[in-house]
Amino acid sequence: MDARFDYAGNPVAAKAAKYFVSASRAVSDSTLPATTQELVQLRVSQINGCAVCVDMHTKQAAHAGESPVRLNLVAAWREAAVFSDAERAALELAEQGTRIADGGGVTDEVWAHAAKHYDEDQLAALVSLVAVMNAWNRMNVITRQPATGDFQPGQWE
């Protein structure tokens, strides 16, 4: 599969990507646990079918020390006993925030569950992360960016 265009080489798309990178940095610099960030990025990308991001975030998480077992079970996190209550809350919020057209948004119950585990700044980071990942996924899927499998952890830092 060939990309429809190289958005890094297009001035408008490159400028938008620059802002996405800035938003991503605000989240990565937050107190939201790095493990949670990677799990959420991976799950959102799985839902959206963004192969580039699935490749990237699986490798980034593994490089940061995440276990293959947990990475393999992210797609089935509800049935997996390897995630903490806090991670489950983040994954549920990420799923509902990604599938807003399917269910009307994030329920009060899911928000309250996340708020039991994360402070206000971490919730802000989590919401921002879901929004930014959805934006990245859409740019990649719409322009058909191929996953070549050659991503190396840290290459975009």
Automatic annotation (TrEMBL):
- Which Pfam families does the record associate with it? CMD (PF02627)
GO molecular function terms listed in the Swiss-Prot or TrEMBL record = peroxiredoxin activity
**Top-level taxon in the UniProt lineage:** Bacteria
InterPro entries in alphabetical order: AhpD-like, AhpD_core, CMD-like
> What sequence ranges are listed for the domain Carboxymuconolactone decarboxylase-like?
18-95
Q: Which NCBIfam families match?
A: ahpD_dom
This protein is called Carboxymuconolactone decarboxylase family protein
Q: Give the originating organism.
A: Nonomuraea longispora
